[in-house]
Design brief:
By secondary structure, the protein is of the alpha/beta class. Helices cover 37% and strands 19% of the residues. The strands form two sheets. The protein has a seven-stranded mixed β-sheet with strand order 5-4-3-6-7-9-8, with helices on both faces. A two-stranded antiparallel sheet has the order 1-2. The protein starts with 7 loop residues before the first helix and ends in a 6-residue tail after the last strand. Its EC number is 2.1.1.297.
């Protein structure tokens, strides 16, 4: 696909126009394959590729043309201004989820205890712990492989997070927090989006509940009051068309100040409320 001896500038033009590769994907793959920074990509634009470099870049480009997500190819994705390692064991962190982190930071009291449920790559928990050094952050996931990735990301970013293997609240028995956050599986089983784009390569159990898309949200909403202190928030990310249903679930369980917040695209992406008080 890429010939040895071609200049970096020629390769950029070829992959962008001939292979119709997105310019950002193009730049990321070339930098990754050649070990270059974005500045070096410009300053070394007339450097010719060696045979090994051409073969390595060709292999990466083919993976992308076959549809594999950029984040899995390079093994990293930025989230909340921090680098996160990713693998096919975890969802790729997305900018939409930064809204959940921002809302959590606003609602977490000083030195507060926060629980992140279904942490995946650890993006939410690590971003919270990195930004709020005073916080006591616990993150749960049922997948040992995901927890391994998450622990690595906490170490990478110097964030203090306690990770536990848990099927939702099972490992949090008897524990209380000042905030619970979650980005759970919320795509309904059989949704066409599961067979499109990057979602084809991401772990199915982190995307869909294999039901109506609301079962994990119901579990979180029902269980949170027993794990939240009085006057504290539950915040959850959900699908683009689920805000009304999630608000109804929260209201039915007695949550107060129930509301939804819109992401940068104007979509109601996060919903939450203050949990009703239960006996300790």
């Amino acid at each position: 696909m890429i010939a040895a001896g071609a200049t970096i500038a020629a390769v950029q033009a070829q992959t962008h126009y001939a292979q119709r590769l997105d310019p950002l994907d193009n730049r990321i793959l070339i930098c990754h394959a050649l070990g270059l920074t974005r500045v070096a990509l410009i300053t070394q634009s007339e450097r010719a590729l060696t045979a090994d470099e051409a073969a390595r870049l060709s292999a990466l480009l083919q993976r992308r043309l076959d549809g594999e997500p950029i984040a899995y190819i390079v093994g990293e994705r930025e989230f909340f201004g921090l680098p996160f390692k990713v693998s096919p064991s975890v969802l790729i962190p997305r900018p939409d989820t930064e809204l959940l982190v921002e809302l959590a930071i606003e609602r977490l009291p000083p030195s507060g205890r926060v629980l992140d449920m279904g942490t995946g790559s650890g993006a939410i928990a690590v971003a919270l712990a990195h930004t709020r050094r005073d916080a006591d952050v616990t993150a749960l996931d049922v997948s040992p492989a995901a927890l391994e990735v998450a622990r690595g990301n906490a170490e990478l970013n110097g964030a203090r997070v306690r990770f536990l293997e848990s099927d939702w609240y099972s490992a949090a028995a008897g524990q209380r927090y000042q905030l619970i956050v979650s980005n759970p599986p919320y795509i309904a089983d059989g949704d066409r989006h599961l067979s499109e784009g990057d979602l084809r390569f991401e772990p199915g159990g982190a995307l869909t509940d294999y039901a109506d898309g609301l079962s994990a949200l119901r579990t979180i909403i029902a269980g949170a009051p027993a794990h939240l202190e009085a006057g504290c928030w539950l915040l959850m990310e959900h699908g683009y068309d689920q805000a009304e249903a999630v608000r109804a679930l929260l209201a039915a369980q007695g949550y107060t100040e129930v509301q939804s917040w819109r992401d940068l695209a104007g979509i109601e992406r996060v919903s939450g409320g203050i949990a009703p008080t239960t006996a300790a």
